[in-house]
Design brief:
binds ribulose-5-phosphate, single chain, globular, 292 residues, 37% helix, alpha/beta
Length: 292
């Protein structure tokens, strides 16, 4: 029997102090359930409300992309600097150490390779497997204006329904086909559609004109993909402009893992995203780390 003699009789209910409700830092996410918010907090820093997602899922349609030939050698050393890893379940199970205890955003759509029509994707992961892998979110490609636009939207809405059942957020990834113009008008349409149809947050590309209207018109957080490799100073400038104009962070791949100094680059990106460090300072920071 439990020894109850030592339980003190005096209790303090702090009657003068109203119970507080900490505001949730992410735009449009205040009414989500606890599990969903908790998972999002494994992606976005509760302090800055932003994220540096390290995207290494390119192999799901591109094969061994430059920089990702040996993920164990090139990517695992970067894990300590990322807020979140975005990858496929194959890479997660075969290469990623399970001691990685930050958020994993699981690529959950796929099908065609770069050799075929890319928008012909299906859902590629069940929600049960995402839960088994302890995913913080699942990511699905949405091809607005693409040949299989409606199917890609249905892929997303099905995952949203399943995700809502278990508290798993869905990242809607806006993929822009080669024939489409990557401008603010297109990004406004694509991101808003993802949000309206239930994505908890949306990934898109930065556009140099009118990006603030893309973030303003999207009621949930937006993160930007890095896109093709560019000089480090330019990538840092793009990241700065994106967060300055309302993005909640980056989901960056090639501009980190194809950098001459990936560990220095990811740390410089963190400075920009979480501390709003101006790009010229961040570039100097990158150079100083690279020189060490
Ligand atoms: C591939 C993706 C990538 O995760 C995304 O494009 C980010 O990578 P990068 O910064 O290299 O563009 O969704 O479809």
């Amino acid at each position: 029997m439990a020894d109850t003699d030592s339980i003190p009789e005096t209790k303090e209910f702090h009657l003068g102090i109203p119970q507080t409700a900490e505001p949730f830092p992410l735009k449009g996410c205040h009414h989500l359930d606890w599990g969903m918010k908790n998972r999002l907090s494994h992606i976005f820093s509760p302090k800055s409300g932003r994220t540096v997602m390290l995207a290494v899922d390119h192999g799901y349609f591109m094969g061994p992309t430059s920089g990702l030939e040996r993920i164990d050698v090139t990517i695992n050393p970067l894990l300590g600097y990322a807020d979140t890893l975005m990858c496929t379940r194959g890479v997660l199970r075969s290469i990623t150490p399970p001691t990685f205890n930050k958020g994993v955003v699981l690529r959950a759509s796929g099908g065609p390779s770069i050799l075929k029509e890319l928008s012909d994707e299906n859902i590629a992961v069940s929600i049960e497997d995402a839960l088994r892998l302890n995913a913080a979110a699942v990511a699905v490609q949405v091809f607005i204006g693409g040949e299989f636009e409606t199917r890609s939207i249905h892929n997303m809405t099905r995952l949203v329904d399943e995700g809502n059942r278990y508290g798993v957020p869905v990242l809607g990834v806006t993929a822009v086909g080669k024939q489409l113009v990557r401008d603010a008008k297109y990004m406004r349409l694509a991101t808003r559609m993802c949000a309206e149809l239930g994505a908890a947050y949306v990934k898109t590309y930065f556009v140099s004109e009118g990006f603030e209207t893309v973030t303003a018109g999207c009621p949930v957080p937006i993160v930007i993909a890095g896109g093709k490799k560019m000089p480090e100073a330019e990538a840092l400038t793009m990241a700065f402009q994106a967060v300055d104009q309302g993005a909640a962070g980056v989901d960056m791949g090639r501009n980190i893992f194809q950098s001459e100094a990936p560990i220095a680059m990811i740390q410089a990106v963190r400075k920009v995203v979480h501390e709003h460090m101006p790009p010229n300072e961040a570039y100097e920071y990158y150079r100083s780390l690279k020189a060490k």
